[in-house]
């Protein structure tokens, strides 16, 4: 059965939302450690030190600070990402002169994912800003950069609106785009190449859950290795703008390298690499299986 483009888009959007939810629930504690270590590298000697200090300062709930906006961010990002991914695959087919139902190469899928990520960045930036600020609220307060305040999603939103208006939610948009567009080329490229490796002649649609999760993990590793320094700068811009410091990407980059050295751009890389396999594996597993389920229901109908 040939599906309607609107129905196909709705299926991709819903499957992307399922994937985003699975990704956050699996990887949130590691994401919290990553953001803390990126923004305050001088406070933590490593991942273990960051974990122990977070637990002693704010308890187990400290690992899940920013989960609500993280869920909203990932559901919004992955819904838009995978919906636009389907559209961008059609654009790539048109540019390449292929039939609408033709299978794309791994490189062509990577290009489609890269294009789709630009649209996803527009919904991701505001929610990720709130998430990063909540995750580092304790450090910002204890370092005296901001006054003590209510530690809630709504208080952060009100603070942004009061200080900078609606456009304040887009602090770090340029660095988010700089991370997303090349990053998702490697993300989808790594995922599709890995699926091709596991399929070895069979259809990639026949792969079981373990190869899918491993392929998702490979995609996540490829993304973060390619763009991690950009993500580090993005986190700095989004968190430190809370104290009124407004700095662009290049200025922040130069300040970090000059004052802290090039290694500061890789602070928090370890929890990110650990998180990549379970979080991105869960993302693609939830996406592929929920999409397959909905497509089967549609064909049966």
Would you mind describing this structure in some detail?
This protein is mostly helical and 301 residues long. The protein has a domain at 1-65 and 268-300. It is 76% helix and 0% strand. The chain contains ten helices and no strands. The protein has helices at 5-39, 47-58, 67-96, 106-135, 137-142, 153-164, 173-199, 209-240, 249-260, 269-300. α1 packs antiparallel against α10, α7 (173-199) packs antiparallel against α8 (209-240) and α8 crosses α10 (269-300). The longest helix has 35 residues, at 5-39. The chain is globular and about 60 Å long. Belongs to the mitochondrial carrier (TC 2.A.29) family. This is Mitochondrial ornithine transporter 1. GO terms for molecular function: antiporter activity; L-arginine transmembrane transporter activity; L-lysine transmembrane transporter activity; L-ornithine transmembrane transporter activity. Its main location: mitochondrion. Solcar repeats lie at residues 7-91, 104-197, 207-293.
| Tally of DSSP helical segments | 10
Overall mean pLDDT: 87
Helix content: over 70%
Strand content: under 5%
Give a topology summary:
Elements lengths: L4 H35 L7 H12 L8 H30 L9 H30 L1 H6 L10 H12 L8 H27 L9 H32 L8 H12 L8 H32 L1
Helix pairs in contact: 1-3, 1-10, 3-4, 4-7, 7-8, 8-9, 8-10
Keywords summarizing the entry:
301 residues; 10 helices
In short:
By secondary structure, the protein is mostly helical. The protein is built from 10 helices and no strands.
